[in-house]
Amino acid sequence: MHHDRLAAQHFLILRDPDASGEAIQAAFEWIDQEQQHRAAFDRVERFLHACDGVPAEDIARLKGVPGKPVLALPHLSRRMWALAASVLFLLIVGAGIVREQRAVMVQEARFETPRGTLREVQLVDGSNITLAGGTAVSVSYRRNARTVNLLRGEALFAVAPDKQRPFTVLTQNGSATALGTAFNVHRGPDTATVTVLHGKVEVLAKGAGYVSRATLEKYRQVQYSRGGEMSTIKRVDPDMAASWRRGEFSFVDTPLAAVIDDLNRYSARPIVIEGEALKHVKISGIVTAGSIAEWLAALPAIMDVQIVETSRAIRILPNIRRTVSRT
Q1: Using CA atoms, how far apart are residues 136 and 177, in angstroms rounded to an integer?
Q2: Which of 94, 111, 118, 285 has the fewest CB atoms within 10 Å, i.e. is most exposed?
C-alpha cells in the first residue's frame, strides 16, 4: 500500500506540465530503484489508463498544491498522502480493474496547439506528450512500433517503457528513439534539437549518402540539420532544457531567424524579419512569453535594426538611417 501511494504521487508528477526537470528525474529514479516500485507504478498506470485518465480537477486535488509541482515527496502532507492513497485504493478495489494492458494498441491521431497555448496529451500506452505553443504532432501506434512525427514546434515526451515497441520521434531528416525515458525535441527552421532528461535516446540524422548517429544519456543534447550534419554532444541544465513549459526561452549564439521562429509560437502578432542577412545574425539571451514586446523594443539597442509595428505584424528591418550615415 505504501508503494502504491508513492507510485500515485510519481504518476501525477509525470503528468504535471509544470513539473521541473528535477521532479521528472526524481520520479523516474524512484521507479527504477526497485522492482517493487516498478510493479506499483505499473498497477497505478494500468488502472488509471483503463479509466481513461484522471480529470484535471482530480489531479490538482491529489497534488495538494494547485498549480504547483511537488518537487520533494516528503513535502506532501500526511492528510494528502492519505487522500491520494485512499482514493486510488478504493477505486481499484471497488472497480476491480487491475488487469494487463492489451497486447496490441493501435492509435492514429494528430494533436496541435494554437499560439501561446500548452497542451498535455496522454497516449494509449501511458506515454505523455506536452506540446509547446504553435506545435503539431501526428501519432501512429502499431504492433511493434510507436511513432510520433513532430510536424512543427517543440514537445516534451515522457515515454512509457515497452521493449517490444520502441518510441520514435521524427523531425525533418532525422529521428530520436527511446524505450522508456523523458526527452525534449525542438524543431526549428533548419535544425532539430534533442535533449534527454532521463534514460537514453538514439538520435539518427540522414544526409546525402550518409547517416549520423549519437546516443544521448540524461542531461545531454545534440542538434542536427536538414542536411544530416550533427553537432557534438553537450551537457545542458535540465531545468533549461524544457523551460518553455514555464514560458521561458533561452538562446545562446542562436540565429535571429531561429529565435523569432520560437517566439512566433507565442506572439499575438506574427514577427517578420526583413532582410536575409539579419536572419543569420546570432544572439544570446533569455525571453519570457509575457515580455516578447519589451524584448523586441530593446532589440535596436544591441543590433543595427529598427522595429516597425502595425496592427497585423511586427517587422524587424535593417536600420537604414545608420547604414546611410556610415557611407
Answers
A1: 19
A2: 94
